[in-house]
Amino acid sequence: MTDFAALSKDVLAGFLQTVVVIDDQAYDVQNEKTAIPLKSPSRGQAKADDSSEDAARTQVAHSLDTSQLVSAFACKGLVCAVIAPQKDEPVEQRLGSVVDRCDIVIIDWQMFNDDGKQTLSLIKHLCEGDCGNRLRLLCVYSGEPDLEKISDQITGKKFGFTCHDNNKLLLRKDHVIVTILGKSVVPVERLADELFNCFSIFTRGLLSNAVLAALTGIRRNTHRIIQKFDSSLDQAYISHRILSVPVDNSESEILSVICSELESAIHQSPKIPYINSGAIQAWMKSDARKNFNYDELNVNPNFAPQALEKLIEFGINHSDHSHDNVYQSICSKVRSKKFVKESKMTLILGGKKPKDEDRRFAILSTLETRYEDYVPKLTLGSIVHDGERYLLCILPRCDSARVPTKGRNFLFIQLVDKSPPQIDIIVKDNNNLVDLGISMHPYDTIIIRFAASTAGQPVKAVEKDGSWVFKIKSEDDNVETVRWVADVKPQVAQAFANEYASKVSRVGVNKSQWLHQLANKE
């Protein structure tokens, strides 16, 4: 195992919490070690009756030492529950809610000799259930001799599973991972380690490790955060709500306060070591290096790995390496606009689709993610499409929070999507990544009137033909709409609005052109 793989496994161990084992033969292994009684042959018996021995061997092959399994997970800090379902008890209906809350699910294939019927039902529940796309690992831990046959039965059900790295015993569909292990191949004492290794394959990454560490930090401070919002503040909150206009505006404000506390828990926790230069160096020594493409650096191949390590350690600021002409040349090349625009650095680091990957990361840093049943609201930072062009709303949040039913004018600036001179925002629209440049010219400002369905409420989108749209306020019966595309993060949207405001507030002054030219900044 590489250093990076061990690092990834370590952060995963701090995040995972719960395991559930579902097995119809989940009993103490001591019961199965009882010696099989010898049977004296009767007079004239020509053939030994070995049916009882076969049954005993089958029982041993399918049995599970739950005591040892619970202890193995406990040593890793995980709580492991063991459930032995009753015969004719639908596992999906009886235990579905339990499974939804667990990180790792271990289930036998043969539940009362049903040839995988109950297990397949549970897999279907995990694939189709609304569990918030929670990443979970389901282990089919079976005493069956033909494990690939089990894999064929799972993939044959058209759940959408695909083999990982051509391994028929490791399957994945979206957020559900299924691994198939034999009880005779992976003994109970090794099962916990095997499942950790399997799980970490799908969480291994610099950013995913950082996310797991951050969430672990929040979890560690959960009770402190709850105590800060204890019941002694209920009266103060109600007073705040009464004084708020409108009153229900206080609900979103409190959510913002809670988010701020969660952010503090992350920022004030010990420095996350999973994204620093040391972690990146470990990443470079992992299997990722197989995909490195040093050709784009255009330097001596023997020097390229060292140059890349320097870039990671010091960045493109070469002031500390003024004596190194080769490194200075590389830095100048890497920071050139053409090099950046063509995503060459991401290509060097082994990106399969470097331009798409850079755009996805840009979206992550500038646009809000839509979770669960979010209904878009028209406010500062909303990006819409009117059928011809993309528009960015720059109306202040306080003016868009309480809109009368008679309507209010919303201010938009245009976004250029066809060969923009510069790229300010990237959106994913109809599964296409679209580069957008903002036109800050005051004469490109667009005003559109919208009305709230309820007085004093924000303008909310409605669903139409699979999209979210905002209805334009019209004096006639014609219903015109603009299509919601995305929401820019509040701080990013405010920065755009401030830049636009500076353009609007420009002052034209009559002065000497000679002086104007001397004062002109390049």
UniProtKB/TrEMBL annotation:
Ranges of residues in domain Response receiver: 15-186
Concerning InterPro entries, the annotation shows: REC (IPR043834)
Segments carrying the region annotation (Disordered) are 38-58
**Pfam families found in the cross-reference section:** Response_reg_2 (PF19192)
Residue ranges annotated as compositionally biased, kind Basic and acidic residues, are: 46-56
In Swiss-Prot or TrEMBL terms, this protein is called Response receiver domain-containing protein
Species of origin reads Megalodesulfovibrio gigas (strain ATCC 19364 / DSM 1382 / NCIMB 9332 / VKM B-1759) (Desulfovibrio gigas)
What broad taxonomic lineage does this protein's source fall under? Bacteria, Pseudomonadati, Thermodesulfobacteriota, Desulfovibrionia, Desulfovibrionales
